[in-house]
Design a protein that fits this description.
The complex is a heterotrimer of chains A (658), B (323) and C (446).
Chain A: E1 4-9, E2 13-17, H1 23-30, E3 48-53, E4 56-58, H2 66-70, E5 73-75, E6 79-81, E7 85-88, H3 103-117, E8 127-133, H4 145-156, E9 161-163, H5 165-175, E10 176-180, E11 185-189, E12 192-200, E13 203-211, E14 219-225, E15 229-236, E16 241-249, H6 259-265, H7 271-294, E17 301-308, H8 310-317, E18 339-340, H9 341-344, E19 353-356, H10 366-375, E20 383-388, E21 394-398, E22 403-407, E23 429-436, E24 441-446, E25 454-455, H11 457-469, E26 488-490, E27 497-502, E28 513-516, H12 517-541, E29 548-554, H13 563-568, E30 580-584, H14 586-596, H15 598-610, E31 611-613, H16 622-629, H17 641-654
Parallel strand pairs in A: 1-7, 9-13, 14-17, 17-19, 20-29, 22-31, 23-25, 29-30
Antiparallel strand pairs in A: 1-2, 3-5, 3-7, 4-6, 8-12, 10-11, 12-13, 14-15, 15-16, 18-19, 20-21, 21-22, 23-24, 26-27, 27-28
Chain B: E1 16-19, E2 33-36, E3 55-61, H1 70-76, H2 83-92, E4 97-101, H3 114-127, E5 132-135, H4 140-153, E6 160-164, H5 170-179, E7 182-186, H6 191-203, E8 211-214, H7 224-239, E9 250-251, H8 253-257, H9 267-273, H10 276-295, E10 298-301, H11 304-319
Parallel strand pairs in B: 3-4, 3-10, 4-5, 5-6, 6-7, 7-8, 9-10
Antiparallel strand pairs in B: 1-2
Helix pairs in contact in B: 2-3, 3-4, 4-5, 7-10, 10-11
Chain C: H1 5-9, H2 25-33, H3 47-57, E1 64-66, E2 73-75, E3 93-99, H4 104-115, E4 118-121, E5 124-127, E6 130-134, H5 140-154, E7 158-162, H6 165-174, E8 181-184, H7 190-200, E9 204-207, H8 211-223, E10 229-232, H9 238-253, E11 264-266, H10 272-284, E12 289-292, H11 297-310, E13 324-327, E14 336-340, H12 343-356, E15 360-365, H13 372-377, H14 383-393, E16 403-406, H15 414-421, E17 424-427, H16 435-441
Parallel strand pairs in C: 3-6, 3-12, 6-7, 7-8, 8-9, 9-10, 11-12, 14-15, 16-17
Antiparallel strand pairs in C: 1-2, 4-5, 13-15
Helix pairs in contact in C: 4-5, 5-6, 6-7, 10-11, 12-16, 14-15
The chains are: A alpha/beta (658), B alpha/beta (323), C alpha/beta (446).
């Protein structure tokens, strides 16, 4: 039977499918990326494509306006091809391949270098290479080759040492050259070898031995396996300097934008394999990129330290994930032992080791423990707060005496998901916004200066704050259309107002970039769950907000976070701005620290054991705190004196009610 | 042995809201009703200034109700087809206020035009000189057309208008503001939402001190404890100085109490629970008095026996009985 | 005052040894602060730390036991003025009074009526727990005889009320092993009664003519070697009793030992309705026992309902019974909405269905009181649990169609639910507020 041919533009990928295959599935097969947060269930509206030629058939959907339907838009997951097709994937549904975190990775090179320069941190990476010149054996000293080598290594790296038979087999020939003639074998001593030693639990492992001095070729990969983005930094382990960073979207997104949806997918036959492979392939792709850009060989990479939330690390290692989301939320392992990277399918040096950052239960993953390490909050006198503003919204409060963590299921709104014109922090994302009245005049910046395609998290935070301060949103988050009628349009579906930030076509995008009333409600609920989580911890531990000396904010939702905007909307407590530090991706920073310092590695284990996890579900006051926080900036304005001040100043100057 | 002084020193008080206006004040009411003013936990003479005694408003619908149980039919069956007659009966029974519900304007109930609602309000105001509470039908599109006209018609009488919510508050607040009425702010048994509604309303310029809070109501045995605790918490907040919770409270006791099985079930439950004629009124009365202990200032009630008992209880609690 | 997690943590060894069963000392401390675990679970706490923590945690109101074996009742150990701060722990006990001045036939009839004072409300059994026998005649023999009869006929523990210690002795002895509460109405006889209580191993309720006098009396009773004491505020009438009970509770929570005991209150209003109101008020306001002359079922039912309401635990996840509910006059064509058994969710849905004026069935699935999204995430609300609830509900016999409406937030479940249940799963609105419009405009049974 002749199949149906479908061509996807602009990437020009083609595939042939049978009847009964959705357009989304066809795109997957063709290798054309189409965003699908909900995994193809028809409930996110992100898989919009335009049918240029041919016919499709399928369900109607409330995600497309009549105008869009006229222009050929369909939701790829809801339609089936009826004839050969030419389909265009519009920009907002495409994924740019690699996200150049750019500024972000630069900041991290500096950040981790700073950390290395801080209170004496000797460089003692998890994998070390020792160039040894072994003395020639004599009659007085006929020590066997193996023992000769081992004692030399142990002098460099004290402690129990283990090695495999393979090395012993190769050793005599590595230490000598051999002349073979018809009648005799002549061995000449060389004795110059490089031994590669890795920390493996409580012992050291001699991974392999090479002839000559290869000690400069010692590199490690610090990996952050995020739910949305996978980031890899290549570090020179002899200097501790980061050479290069690369990142890309987590390909698991096609199985669902959030972890629960992916765990559900893992229940299907072939699901776990697909999810595991997706991560592995992503890492492999990043390694390719890094290797390409730095001229470092794959075989020079001796180890990987992986950080990520509990589910992601389980996917990476191919561990059972189902129990993570069922009460009592038990992972397969909190601190998986170091394994051979090759066992997972990661191709660095064949004997290279994969280490994982330890987790605390299902909700406080290796990314958070890495953040605790990287910020240094675990050894400070003063009280610190670490906020990871991602889908899971983890919060950690503590100092050298105690650490408490909790997780607010914030939702993906700050990462662009579930917001109509939301997108990940990539090229063309609006990442900052200002509104000046009267007017209003809206000015915005985008990542890479590209024409705007949508909002990323930092852009959304700014939008909410600026709309509120401009009087276009009331305290409960309702649009005040009468204050600026020209800026609003009305939804075709239910008539609710939408604030137009950028109109279609000047230049790009091919649709209006708007913030809808539902978007605002969603964002308010997301920020409220994070604030309520902080509130819950502060209350249950028994401290006060004023006691918090430092607030660290981590997250992959943009490069420029405007702290005052975060306070204005009530996402962050109203503390003096100098106490608040945006540390971007602390996950990778922590992974790097551990990679370049055994001391930090040890420290990491100890820290993890000290973390107390507080489950918000059992806090009877949480729902109340949440409802209280669902106001801008909060129902109790006294908690936000700086915002109250701004609001009354504006009231005085414009006589506009709040 | 002397016992420790357990009097609490509260920095705040519940506001006093006065409903109704006499001729001297620009209205035509025979008297006004003041509610609120508590300076302590309900009814404790040693805690702080006592509140005004709880006021009782009797429910009067703008047309004959459907599905009211027998005891209520016995009390009002001969008047409930005419809101004017019903209001007069309410006055006879000792109501402090009339609680008029405009049910006929509801699109599914009669869809009466605004003019009819205005007509009825005027007739009731004319017939009885008690202060008036007026509720819409809870369908925003209709209430937005009716309530402003009703508010205008009742101008000068300082009525209590119900109700604004966190999603629908603009029209009614503007009407209350324009025509000098007090406002009922409704919230679904949630202190934060109650505060939020107050914030939204006062952001429009309406005074915080003219608001009466309606935290919804639940009958005895059917979730009453939620309301009870919200009342206690609200009272504690008011006494601690929180201006956003310092409003007096109105509760819809009659409506809730007469919905439940204990107040409706007849023969099949008489043996296990006693006869409906006794059971029903007691259910309403105890719902009211329990909630008064939580902290309430204005009760909407129905059955004459329940009303008598609650009135007597209120007097005992406010003045003491020396028994 | 209650200590916070951090304050408790400072007293603990801080070794994170996990012997207590919790992962860290701070976790243990936070559980202690939430009253979910007691200090004795930590085997390594120092004596000094123990003393400090226990002083802060001692119950301010004595625990008193009345009755024995299967009928044992406990009162006391309260720590709150307001139920929302934590909860009220021991529901007020009700005792209906029978006087020994009644003619035997009347007494028997009254006792039979008391014996029948058990009710079922919202699927739970509630009853009047005790019978109060009043020595109004002052005659010891009549008292003893009625006491015996009362306990036998009603099967309940007794409160024995007399002005004479020796009468109490006789009656108590007759009820040996049943541990009745002895109530001495004459303060002059209180010490003598204490001796009786001690020898008969019963708790003692005392009264005095004012709160000051009461504060003088109880330390004497305690010094006589009796701990199980119950106190009567001494006044009568709604207002006076309310104020006295409140004073006693506030003082007790400030650790004023003379008032650190459970309380007993009496209703005395002229009419039955007012006595019902009195009893309910005392139940809500700090009385541990209420003695009343009310006897009709319709009178006691509302007092018991007040008790059920006030003593529910405000901290438990707020759930409704998971079952099939109906709103309005449902028929074979009525829509079937599926939701969880989290109270707020259920009541929102119910409220919106009511507002829509469309009669409908609501199937509330047991999700342990969690909301739609939480239940979905923790896999309590899935195709399996929904189908199971559907089949068990009997809805298939009540409607002719096979269409159910799922909450919009879990649209992902529709395929699975259809497969497992064989019903058509329609996706309803994401917010409850969308229900009226959905039911009026989009729902069709055919």
């Amino acid at each position: 039977m002749a199949g149906i041919r479908i061509r996807f533009l602009p990437e020009d990928r083609e595939t042939t499918v049978d009847e009964g295959v959705t357009l989304l599935e066809a795109a997957r097969r063709a290798g054309a990326y189409v965003g699908a947060i909900c995994g193809g269930e028809g409930i996110c509206g992100k898989c919009r494509v335009i049918v240029r030629e041919g016919e499709v058939e399928g369900q109607s959907t409330e995600f497309l306006t009549r105008d869009e339907i006229r222009r050929g838009y369909v939701l790829a997951c809801q339609v089936y091809p009826r004839s050969d097709l030419v389909v265009e994937v519009p920009p907002e549904s495409r994924l740019a391949g690699y996200v150049e975190i750019g500024e972000d990775s630069q900041r991290f090179r500096d950040f981790s270098r700073q950390l290395i320069r801080r209170p004496p941190l000797r460089l003692s990476p998890l994998v070390e290479k020792f160039y040894l010149t072994l003395p020639e054996p004599t009659l007085d000293d006929p020590t066997a080759d193996q023992e000769r080598l081992l004692s030399a290594v142990v002098r460099k790296r004290p402690g129990p040492l283990q090695m495999g038979l393979k090395i012993t087999r190769e050793l005599p020939r590595l230490l000598r050259t051999r002349e073979v003639s018809r009648s005799s074998w002549k061995w000449h001593w060389d004795g110059q070898v490089t031994a590669t030693v890795a920390l493996r639990g409580s012992v050291n492992e001699l991974l392999y031995v090479e002839r000559g001095d290869t000690s400069r070729r010692n590199f490690g990969l610090a990996l952050d396996v995020g739910t949305t983005t996978v980031v890899a930094h290549l570090v020179d382990l002899t200097t501790g300097i980061t050479l290069e960073a690369a990142a890309k979207y987590n390909s698991q997104i096609k199985f669902g934008a959030d972890v629960i949806t992916r765990i559900n997918y893992a229940r299907q036959p072939g699901g776990p394999e697909a999810l595991h492979q997706a991560v592995v392939e992503d890492v492999e792709t990043l390694i390719d990129d890094l290797v390409h850009h730095t001229q470092v060989g794959r075989g020079d990479i001796q180890c990987i330290v992986a950080a990520g939330n509990t589910s992601m690390l389980h996917f990476l290692l191919g561990l059972e994930v189902d129990l993570i989301r069922l009460s009592p939320f038990v992972p397969a392992a909190s601190a998986p032992p170091p394994v051979r990277a090759a066992e997972i399918g990661l191709r660095i040096h064949p004997r290279g080791i994969l280490y994982t950052m330890p987790m605390v239960g299902s909700f406080v993953g290796g990314d958070v423990t890495a953040g605790i390490l990287a910020s240094g909050m675990y050894r400070a006198e003063e009280l610190s707060l670490l906020l990871d503003i991602g889908t899971n919204g983890e919060v950690v409060l503590g100092n050298k005496d105690f650490l408490v963590a909790c997780s607010a299921s914030a939702g993906p709104a700050f990462e662009g998901g579930s917001v109509r014109c939301g997108m990940r922090a990539g090229s063309g994302a609006i990442d900052s916004l200002r509104i000046t009245m009267p007017g209003p005049v809206v000015s915005a910046t985008t990542i890479d200066g590209q024409p705007p395609l949508g909002f990323c998290g930092t852009g959304l935070i700014d939008a909410l704050a600026e709309l509120f301060l401009a009087g276009l949103l009331d305290r409960s988050g309702r649009f005040q259309v009468d204050a600026a009628p020209k800026c609003f349009c009305f939804s075709e579906n239910d008539g609710t107002p939408e604030f137009v930030v950028v109109s279609r076509g000047q230049p790009a995008p091919n649709r209006d970039i708007v913030l809808t009333q539902a978007d605002v409600e969603n964002l308010i609920r997301t920020k409220a769950s994070i604030y309520a989580a902080v509130d819950s911890l502060v209350e249950s531990v028994g401290v006060r907000y004023e006691d918090i000396s430092r607030v660290y904010i981590a997250g992959a939702f943009g490069n420029r976070l405007n702290v005052p905007s975060c306070v204005t909307i009530g996402l962050l407590p109203d503390l003096p701005p100098e106490r608040i530090h945006f540390i971007g991706n602390s996950s990778v920073a922590g992974a790097k620290l551990v990679m370049v310092s055994r001391e930090m590695y040890d420290q990491m284990q100890k820290i993890t054991e000290r973390i107390t996890y507080q489950d918000l579900i059992i806090d009877p006051g949480y729902m109340e705190r949440f409802t209280s926080a669902c106001f801008l900036p909060h129902t109790d304005l006294e908690r936000f004196p700086s915002v109250a001040h701004q609001l009354s100043a504006r009231l005085r100057s414009t006589n506009m009610p709040l | 042995m002397s016992i420790p002084d357990v009097k609490e020193k509260w920095p705040g008080r519940v506001n006093v809201v006065t409903i109704g206006a006499t001729a001297a004040e620009g209205g035509t009411r025979g008297r006004t009703v003041a509610i609120g003013g508590a300076g302590g936990i309900p009814f404790l003479s040693f805690d702080g200034p006592m509140a005004h005694p709880p006021a009782i408003a009797i429910d009067v619908l703008d047309k004959q109700p459907v599905g009211w149980p027998k005891p209520l039919e016995e009390a009002y069956g001969d008047v409930w087809a005419d809101p004017v007659l019903w209001a007069r009966r309410a006055k006879e029974l000792g109501a402090d206020l009339i609680n008029l519900r405009l049910t006929g304007i509801h699109p599914d109930e009669g869809d009466w035009p605004p003019s009819k609602a205005v007509e009825i309000v005027k007739a009731v105001l004319e017939a009885v000189d008690l202060p008036l509470i007026i509720w819409g039908c809870d369908v925003p599109e209709k209430d937005q057309r009716v309530m402003p006209k009703v508010a205008e018609a009742a101008q000068g009488e300082r009525c209590l208008l119900g109700a604004v919510t966190q999603t629908e508050y603009r029209t009614l607040t503007a009407a209350a503001q324009a025509y000098g009425h007090k406002l009922i702010a409704a919230s679904p048994c949630d202190i934060n939402i109650a505060k939020q509604v107050n914030i939204l309303v006062t952001d429009m310029g309406y005074p915080l001190t003219d608001i009466v809070i309606y935290p919804s109501t639940a009958a005895l045995g059917y979730g009453m404890e939620y309301i009870y605790s919200i009342l206690e918490r609200g009272r504690l907040a008011a006494l601690s100085g929180d201006k956003l919770m310092a409003q007096p409270v109105i509760l819809d006791v009659g409506f809730e109490a007469w919905r439940v099985k204990e107040a409706r079930a007849t023969e099949e439950m008489d043996e296990a629970w006693g006869p409906l004629s006794c059971r029903g009124p007691v259910w309403e009365a105890v719902t009211a008095t329990d909630l008064l202990q939580g902290g309430a200032d204005l009760l909407i009630m129905r059955h004459p026996e329940a009303i008598r008992a609650v009135r007597e209880t209120g007097e005992l609690l406010v003045q003491g009985d020396g028994k | 005052m209650a200590l916070t997690g951090l304050e408790i943590y400072k007293h603990l060894p801080k070794t994170n040894c996990k012997d207590c069963g919790f992962p860290t000392c701070l976790a243990f401390a936070m559980k202690m602060a939430a009253k979910q675990v007691s200090l004795d679970k930590c085997p390594h706490v120092t004596a000094a730390a123990k003393a400090a923590l226990e002083a802060a945690a001692r119950p301010p109101i004595q625990l008193v036991t009345i009755g024995a074996d299967a009928q044992e009742l406990k009162i006391g150990n309260e720590t709150q003025l307001y139920r929302h701060e934590e909860k009220f722990y021991r529901p007020t006990l009700l005792a209906v009074r029978v006087c020994d001045t009644l003619e035997p036939a009347a007494a028997s009839a009254r006792l039979e009526a008391i014996a029948a004072l058990s009710f079922e409300r919202v699927g739970t059994k509630v009853s009047v727990e005790m019978v109060a026998v009043d020595n109004a005649s002052a005659d010891a023999a009549r008292f003893e005889s009625l006491a015996r009869q009362a306990v036998e006929v009603t099967g309940r523990p007794a409160v024995l009320i007399s002005a004479k210690a020796e009468n109490l002795q006789r009656a108590a002895r007759a009820l040996a092993g049943k541990r009745p509460l002895l109530y001495i109405s004459d303060p002059q006889q209180a010490l003598a009664a204490a001796a009786v209580a001690k020898s008969e191993n019963c708790p003692l309720a005392v009264r005095a003519d004012g709160l000051e006098e009461l504060a003088d009396l109880t330390p004497k009773i305690e010094a006589a070697g009796l701990e199980q004491i119950v106190i009567d505020p001494g006044v009568r009438g709604l207002k006076a009793t309310l104020e006295a009970l409140t004073r006693i509770r506030r003082a007790a929570l400030k650790n004023f030992r003379p008032f650190g005991y459970p309380t007993i209150a009496f209703t005395s209003a002229a009419s039955a309705m007012l006595q019902v109101i009195e009893a309910s008020t005392y139940v809500a306001k700090y009385a541990s026992i209420v003695v009343t002359d009310l006897i009709e079922r319709w009178q006691l039912l509302s007092v018991l309902a007040t008790r059920q309401d006030v003593f529910t635990d405000p901290q438990k996840p707020v759930a409704v019974q998971p079952k099939l509910y109906t709103v309005g006059e449902v028929g074979a064509d009525s829509p079937v909405l599926v939701t969880t058994n989290f109270s707020l969710t259920y009541y929102s849905v119910e409220g919106e269905v009511e507002a829509s004026r469309v009669p409908a069935y609501i199937l509330s699935v047991d999700t342990e009181g969690t909301s739609v999204l939480t239940a979905w995430a923790s896999d309590k609300f899935n195709a399996g649990t929904i189908t199971k609830a559907l089949k068990a509900s009997g809805i298939e016999q009540r409607v002719s169609h096979r269409k159910l409406i799922l909450p919009g937030l879990v649209a992902v479940l529709s395929a699975g639910v259809e497969d497992e249940s064989g019903w058509l799963a329609q996706v309803g609105p994401k917010e409850a507020s969308g229900i009226p419009s959905y039911l009026k405009n989009q729902w069709k049974s055919n």
